[in-house]
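Hi R.,

Here's the input for the phosphoenolpyruvate complex you asked about:
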Amino acid sequence: MLVVMNANATEAEIAGVVRVIEALGLRAHTMPGATRTAIGITGNKGAISLQHFENLPGVAEAIRVSKPYKLITLDLKQDRTIVDIGGAKIGNGSLAIIAGPCAIETRQQTFAVAEVVKKSGAKFFRGGAFKPRTSPYAFAGLGEEGLKMLVEVREKFGLRIVSEALDEPGVDLVEKYADMIQIGARNMQNYTLLRRVGRSKLPVLLKRGMAATLEEWLLAAEYIMSEGNYQVVLCERGVRTFAQHTRNTLDLAAVPAVRRISHLPIIIDASHGTGKNYMVTPLARAGVAVGADGLMIEVHCKPEEALSDGAQALTLDEFEQMADEVRAIHEVIN
Ligand code: PEP
Ligand code: MN
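And here is the predicted structure with phosphoenolpyruvate in place:
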C-alpha cells in the first residue's frame, strides 16, 4: 500500500502516519517529492485496510499497489531519484561517467588509468578488487590491497570510487574503502547480499543479471530499497542471447522501459554490453542518445596485458576521445 499526503501536509502529519504504520508492525518508507510526500508500506503479509489511513490528518489518499513493486515505482515517487556518491551525483541531468580498469592490478596501472579518467572530466573511478571469474584459476583481484589503492586514487584525484562486492564480508570491506558498492550481474539475484547492501549507508550500483527480465531486475532493486537504502543506480550491461558477434546483447531499450516504471537512475555499461573494444564507443554514444544517466566504461593503459576483460578495454587515448564524443551528444539531446 501507498499513502499519498496532501501537498501541504506538515512534518507532524507525516510522522503521525508513520507512527500508525509502525504500530501495525509494518515498515514505512517516506519519499518526499517536489509536489507531495508519499509513504510506501512494506512488511504486510496480506492486504491492509485502507481505512487505517484514509482519515488521518494530512492524508490525500491511500492506494493499494497491484504491481509487484512498491518502492521503485513512479506511483510512489514521481521525481527522478538523484543518487549522491560522496557529493557527486547521478540522475541530476548531468552525464555520469564511471570509468577505470576491470580489475585493480598494480599501483602503476591504476594511477595511469585514473589520471586520464580525471583529465576527461569524469567523476567516478571503477576498479574491481574482488572479481567474479568464470574460471576458478583466473585472476580474482587483489582484495583489500586493491581497495587501498582505490583510496589513494580518491585522495590524489578526488574521484569517487565504485567497486564490486561479491559476498557479505566483501561488502564490509568495500564499505570501508569505497564510495559506492557495485553488485554484479552474477549476484543480481543473491537476495541475502541484496538485503545486506540495503542496510548499507553507501549507494549501490545494481547491474542487470545476464538473463534477468526487467521485472526481475527491478525487484532486485526493490530488495535493496525495502531494507531502507533508497540510493540505487541501475546498470544495463547486456544480456545473453543467441548472438555471437558480441559478448552480450546490450539492451538499450531498457532505458526507456525503466523510465516508464521507475524513478531510479539508469546507466549503460558499453564494455560488458559488447565485450569488444571496437564496439564500446559506438554503443556508449548510443547509450547517451537513448537517455541514460551515465556510462560505465572499462579502460586500461595496456589492454593487451590486462588480467581481465582486456578485449573490451578502451586504451587511454580511445577513452579520452569517447568522453569528448559522448559529452557532445549529451549536450545536443539535453
Ligand atoms: C565488472 O564490472 O567488471 C563486472 C564483472 O561486470 P558484470 O557483473 O556486469 O559482469
Ligand atoms: Mn570487467
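One thing worth noting: The mean pLDDT is 97.

Cheers,
M.
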